[in-house]
Amino acid sequence: MNDKVVVIVGASxxxxxxxxxxxxxxxxxLVLAGRNTEKLMHLQSSLPPGAVVVxxxxxxxxxxxxxxxxxxxxxxQVDILVNAAGAGVMKQFxxxxxxxxxxxxxxxxxxxxxxxxxxxxxxxxxxxxxxCNVIGILGKHPMAMASAYCxxxxxxxxxxxxxxxxxxxxxxxxxxxxxxxxxxxxWDGVSLKVDRSKMLTPETAAQAIMFALSAEPQAVPLxxxxxxxxxxxL
Length: 234
Ligand SMILES: NC(=O)c1ccc[n+]([C@@H]2O[C@H](COP(=O)([O-])OP(=O)(O)OC[C@H]3O[C@@H](n4cnc5c(N)ncnc54)[C@H](OP(=O)(O)O)[C@@H]3O)[C@@H](O)[C@H]2O)c1
What we know:
single chain; alpha/beta; Rossmann fold; seven-stranded parallel beta sheet; 6 helices; 7 strands; globular; binds NADP nicotinamide-adenine-dinucleotide phosphate
């Protein structure tokens, strides 16, 4: 990871912040993005010097564009984008409000799309890059109460695979991560009874992303699927 420039979108979150710590320890040059500046600065203070905080709301393409521009100003390049921002709404299908659906589509589907578009624009120039989309198992398996979330996450799988096909000629690789439940603040705002003690840890998720990022140059980890033993979708 030495000297790789990594933009983590969702660096203030459970998976993103643990990944930031692992990448920081491995010598990456980090751009930490999310909306909560306080949390981003807290992570920054735990990292080796040099990490940059860029407050970003991924629902707005002009902000994802500025994020990549700032990365270029600071470090001259972007090698890796990790899309680890998102939110969950878990409700009965008939109880989902239009605003819930908009929220899921705007953050989970469109936000990660905008971030990837902005990253590819800069990666294309150097013909090298890696985009990691942290999707979740609900991007390929349905679950009761998750219709709005699944609508967005299934959609992310769709655009990610189209994008991967388009950008391989620019030397840009794409890895999709299908984690089952991970014990992070994601679940704080979800009104669903879950046993967080049986979930994956952010460490497992972050280590899986590190594995994909460290693969030898001729190996492309297309998909990584890790689920907790207590709740597996086969
Ligand atoms: N936890 C799980 O069980 C699980 C399992 C599989 C996949 N996932 C997916 O993994 C990703 C990370 O989840 P997590 O568990 O780490 O959740 P988390 O701890 O709740 O973190 C969510 C992150 O998303 C960011 N975010 C939310 N809305 C944003 C916006 N509009 N603009 C920019 N950043 C935004 C948050 O930052 P700010 O609040 O600072 O904006 C935060 O950094 C999500 O896509 C989630 O769907 C989670």
